[in-house]
Amino acid sequence: MDLDMKPEEAAFRDEVRTFLNDNLTDDLKAHAKLTSGILTDHPLRVEWLRVLNARGWAAPSWPKEFGGTGWSVMQKFIYASECAAAGTPGLSSMGLSMVGPTLMGHGTDEQRAYYLPKILDGSHWWCQGYSEPGSGSDLASLQTRAVSDGDDYILNGTKIWTTGAHVANHMFCLVRTSTEGKKQQGISFILFPMDLPGISVEPIITMSGDHEVNQVFFDDVRVPKANRVGAENNGWTVAKYLLEFERGGSAHGANLRNALNRLKNIAQTEVSDGEGSLIDDPTFRRKVDAADIEVTAVEFTEHRIMSALSTGQNPGAAASMIKLRGSTMTQTITELGVEAISHYFGPQVLEARTWGANVAPVGPAHTLMVAPKYLNGRANTIFGGSNEVQRNIMAKAVLGL
Ligand SMILES: Cc1cc2nc3c(=O)[nH]c(=O)nc-3n(C[C@H](O)[C@H](O)[C@H](O)COP(=O)(O)OP(=O)(O)OC[C@H]3O[C@@H](n4cnc5c(N)ncnc54)[C@H](O)[C@@H]3O)c2cc1C
């Protein structure tokens, strides 16, 4: 594995840095900093997507023929790392990273021509209707029914933990079209707008005070069969294809490095029980250094994956390893943040996190996002496949258990 950047890669990195410098306004950056989880304010995300789309950079991973960049694996990695380091607003992974590539792999020409440009320009915003109450890790047990009625399906059931359903105008959804045979065999993958009669969205406010996830109900919702992706009852194949993109690597290392740097800055400012700043307290310092070593290991593993991908190899279970270690380390770092700010963890002023509200937090400004990030980060080891599920995948693929 060669870790040095080639001259053309360094030139590309500089090009990205210049673009970010010129286009990522202070307002966008400040606004993005107030995000505790994965969702920045919706209008802000759309604004940033449109800036990227104007440059042709909205979908770095898409092939050029569909409006992507045609970048190499290393270019994509450099771009993602630079965006993470600069603190760009999070975009919609559901459209750009999930349903978009899935349509390329399994959609019809008409579906690609209709949906893909609208994902790129932000006019379609997607949410993922996979999980149901009782069907999370065991996704194939899902119960939402789609009953055939002429050229349409009639949907009844519910989806839960649906990230961004309150701002999305489209959903990709797994529905049961048959109860015959194995449970994986009776599932279909369909697309529909969220304003169809019979769809209702109920918010779920998480313990960080954020509204990111929802429960979505379907009450006799009529969806044309033409909106199905892939054959009827073959949705499991489409769903698994999509999950590869959901679990595929992004810039975990760069995100963790940012979080660690933020922690070090906080510990520099906070005072230890003894004398001087917290970062010089030997016990706390040891924990920060241990986290630093772990983050470095994630960065190196990510480089190894990039190296494998760029020579056409499949990283295999390494994607699970990165998801597992990345999400666990996010939690470790946010836990150290809580330890650092101590009693300021208690008073949470939600309005102080609202863009433009002009409400002061209780305590110094650097403490504002520590508790929300800690609380929101509890979900990282659950969504996108829980840690236990990732361990099962590795046990099977690597250890042959
Ligand atoms: C913040 C957040 C956002 C989400 N966004 C979305 C979304 O946009 N769309 C969507 O469809 N879903 C979404 N989800 C749902 C997510 O995919 C599920 O929560 C996840 O798959 C786990 O399912 P579950 O919650 O039903 O827990 P369960 O599957 O019931 O798991 C409960 C516990 O049992 C463990 N477990 C389960 N099976 C096994 C096994 N075979 N071996 C060992 N341990 C096991 C799990 O690891 C977990 O600890 C989101 C979840 C969260 C928390």
List the helices and strands and how they pair.
Layout: H1 7-23, H2 26-33, H3 42-55, H4 73-86, H5 93-106, H6 109-120, E1 126-129, E2 145-149, E3 152-160, E4 170-176, E5 187-193, E6 199-205, E7 211-224, E8 228-229, H7 235-247, H8 252-269, H9 282-310, H10 318-341, H11 370-377, H12 387-397
Parallel strand pairs: 1-4
Antiparallel strand pairs: 2-3, 3-7, 4-5, 5-8, 6-7
Helix pairs in contact: 1-4, 4-8, 5-6, 5-7, 8-9, 8-10, 9-10, 10-11, 10-12
This protein binds flavin-adenine dinucleotide.
The site of flavin-adenine dinucleotide (FAD) has 16 residues, from helix 12.
Write a concise keyword list for the protein shown above.
14% strand, 45% helix, 401 residues, alpha+beta, four-stranded antiparallel β-sheet, binds flavin-adenine dinucleotide, four-stranded mixed β-sheet, Butyryl-CoA Dehydrogenase, subunit A, domain 3, Butyryl-CoA Dehydrogenase, subunit A, domain 2, 3 domains, 8 strands
Q: What does this protein structure show overall?
A:
- This protein is of the alpha+beta class.
- The chain has helices spanning 7-23, 26-33, 42-55, 73-86, 93-106, 109-120, 235-247, 252-269, 282-310, 318-341, 370-377, 387-397; strands at 126-129, 145-149, 152-160, 170-176, 187-193, 199-205, 211-224, 228-229.
- The strands form 2 sheets. The chain has a 4-stranded mixed beta sheet with strand order 1-4-5-8. Strands 2-3-7-6 form a 4-stranded antiparallel beta sheet, with no helix packed on it.
- Strand 6 and strand 7 form a beta hairpin.
- The structure holds flavin-adenine dinucleotide (FAD).
- Flavin-adenine dinucleotide binds at residues 128, 130-131, 136-137, 161-163, 213, 379, 382-383, 386, 388-389, 392.
